Every structure is written in C-alpha cells, then in structure tokens.
Amino acid sequence: MPKNKGKLVCMVVVFVLALTLSVGCFTRSNAEADDQPAPPPGMPSLKEIYKDYFEIGAAVNLSTINTHRSLIDLHFSSLTAENEMKPEGLQRTEGRFSFQIADRIVNLAVDQGLKMRGHTLVWHAQTPGWFFQDKNGNRIDQKAVITEEDRQLVRERLESHIENVMQYYAGKVYAWDVVNEAISDDGRYILRQDSPWFRILGEEFLEIAFRKAHEVDPDAKLFYNDYNIERPYKLNRTIQMLQSLLDKGVPIHGVGIQGHWSVGDSLAEVEQAIKKYAELGLEIHITELDIGTRDISAQGLARQAEYYRQAFALFKKYSDVITSVTLWGISDAATWRPNDNPLLFDKNREPKPAFWAIVDTDKSWEENKAYYLGE
Ligand code: G3I
Q: How far apart are CA 208 and CA 155, in angstroms?
C-alpha cells in the first residue's frame, strides 16, 4: 500500500472509532437522563408551593439522581446524600478522602441552584472501625482502661475528619448534621452508651464536634439530628442535652427531627416538640421524613394522604422556626423502608394521594388532583 494511502486509511479508522465512541457516550448519558419521563404538563411543583414556608428537600443517592431526575428538578429545592457523605463514604481508609461520589450529588445541587444539606459528620454507624482503633489495631472502645493517649488519638481523628470534609464542601453545603443519633433509647441515660464516640471521649464528643465544625466553616448552620426526639420518651433528655451545650456556648444552630413515622403516630407530640425546641432558640429542620403504611388499598393510601396533609399543615403553622422539610427519598421504588410505602410517589414514580394532599393542605387530595389535572 502506498504510504499516503495507508495514512488515509488510518485516519478514517480513527475518525470512525471516535465517532462510534462519542455516539455511544451520548446515547448512554441520554438514556440515563431520560430514565424517567417528564411529568405531564400542569403538574404543580412542591418547591413553588412551599417557597414562602421552607425548603423542600429530598434524600438522593447515586442511582436516584438519574432515575428520579425529573421529579428532583420539578419539586425539590434542597438535597441530602442518603449515604454518600457519611464517614464510610468519605474516609473509608484513614487519611484517604474520596469525594468523587459525593461530588456527583453536591455538584447537581450546585449546578441546579439547590441547597445542599450535609449528612453526617459524627455518628456511631456507617463509620469505619479504624476511627476507634489504637496503633496496634485494638478497639479502644472495648478496652477496660482507656488511656489519655487513646483519647487524644480519637479526638484528633474526629477533628481531622470534620476539618477535611467541611473545608472541602465550604460554600457548597449550607447546613450540616454535625452529630447524628447520640441520644439513648434507654430512659436511664441521656446519651447512647454503645456509641464508640461516647465510650472513648465521653459526653464531650458533642462539644468537640460542634466547636470544630464552627471553627472550620463559620457560615455553616450546625444541626443536631436524631430520630424519635419528638416523642415523650426522648424529648426531655434531648432538650437537656441541647440546653447544656447551649449553656456552655457551644455553637449549635438547629435541631433535625428525622420524622421516620407511620400513619397514626401522634402529631400532637410533634407539635409539643416543635414548641420546645423553638423555645431553645433553635432552628428546626425536618430532615428525613417518610410516613409508612402497609395498607396500599385505596383506603390505606387515602389515610396516608390525610396524615401527610395534617403533617404539612403543622409544618406550615410553625414555618417561622421550621426552615426545611426533607423527605427521605422520592418514590417507593427507592426507599430504605421498601415494605412501608412511605413516600409521595409510588413504585412507578407516579404521584400518590399523599402527594396531592400536600399540594394544598386546606383541601382534600381529591380536590387538589382534580384542580390540577382537570379530572
Ligand atoms: O454500599 C453497600 C454495598 O457495597 C453492598 O453491596 C450492599 C449490600 O447490602 O450494601 C451497601 O450498603 C448499604 C448502604 O445503605 C448503601 O446502600 C447498607 O447495607 C445499608 O445498611 C445502608 O442503609 C442505609 C442506612 O442509613 C444505614 O444505617 C440506608 O440506605 C439509609 O437510608 C439510612 O439512612 C439513615 C440516616 O442516615 C440516619 N437516620 C436513619 C436513616 C434510616 O436508617
């Protein structure tokens, strides 16, 4: 083959290859983006409806930012990473921070102008064991005697994690769940006794965490986040813990009520708790709302809708102190409670009666649906 002809063949092959690859990429990313059809015209937007009340957020993960993308775009003004920003997501190995996965969620929020909540810096779960091991690999929290050196090591790790993560996300994450689920379920204690943070550092771990967080990003809103802290068995102990931090001048700005509820749970208790936390001068975020029902008959879904309606009417009533309400997921197709059908959209990502119920809490879900869809 003449030299020039050979060169030409080569160039054509390279061109065709490049074209094939780029078409391949294009179709793949389009397929991901198109994974969910756009909602029909006329659908109300939750973030529009609630814009004068509070942020309306959703917990998302690497999969749902694709599979639920059009619902995210239409309805939510705030995102939380369901797992990706937990210690095991960001620092699985000591000193090796990996932000790439979490970045895909944070960048979506930044690109779309959504608020980003950080979840979570200090927790007893989803935290790699190395945080609590001494230099010989022994678990410090299991030792009969914990030395000052052990304490110092763990304190440094806690502070270093907070420093690296919050510095990296400063300006992108506006609110952090600094400490998650520290209150004990056992009424004899204020703090959970089985937390390695508590066992090693004592109650001071909360103060250390909040002070460090504030030092690293003084603009971030710092939250204490927990489940059932609106229930009488945990409420007073949580107030006591928060009050004692506030008395010491610890920078804590808000309390996150998770809200993993079931239809029928008392909303009067929730109202009492909102009042009490507000009296402390704290902002309130509902951080992980999902309201389960096993009954997915028409009646069961209507009951769930009515409960969601009442819950959102309550949140609106206290919107001077409740500044964000986040659902822990978007549809029943992707939830940590797959048998409880706890979200606003069903397994096909279609709006449930619960969605229509919160569109206007002064009307019934049927009226709202008929009004918007003209059915
Ligand atoms: O990442 C691994 C994957 O590699 C493995 O193949 C798979 C097999 O089970 O597990 C994957 O990890 C799972 C992880 O979610 C990511 O999907 C864990 O098993 C599973 O336990 C974990 O559950 C998460 C749970 O926190 C852990 O405590 C849920 O998705 C998440 O919704 C849930 O969120 C918590 C909040 O952070 C705090 N409040 C309570 C709330 C509900 O439990």
A: 8
Give pTM, 2 decimals.
Answer: 0.91
∠ CA 149-150-155, rounded to 5° = 95
Mutate to test the pocket of ligand 1, among 336, 339, 340, 343 (most ligand atoms within 8 A of CB): 336
Each residue's pLDDT tens digit, 242-264: 999 999 999 999 999 999 999 99
Cα 223 from Cα 255, distance rounded (Å)? 5
Q: How far is the CA of 89 from the centre of ligand 1 (A)?
A: 11
CA distance 300 to 298: 6
288 is a catalytic site residue: yes
Does residue 159 register a pLDDT over 60?
yes
**Nearest to 106, CA basis, from 176, 161, 53, 180:** 176
Cα separation values, 16 from 5, 23, 76, 130, Å: 17, 10, 42, 50
Q: Which atom of ligand 1 is nearest to the CA of 120?
A: 37
| Protein residue whose Cα sits closest to atom 12 of ligand 1 | 83
Helix, coil or strand: residue 20: helix
The answer to whether residue 281 scores a pLDDT higher than 50 is yes
Catalytic residue list contains 181: yes
Q: How many Å lie between the centroid of ligand 1 and the Cα of residue 51?
A: 31
What's the pLDDT band for 92 if we cut at 50, 70, 90?
very high
Q: What percent of the chain has pLDDT over 70?
A: 90
Assess whether pLDDT exceeds 50 at residue 139: yes
And the tokens for 316?
A: 């609106």
CA 157, CA 173: separation in Å to the nearest integer? Answer: 21
Cα–Cα dist 58/345, whole Å: 12
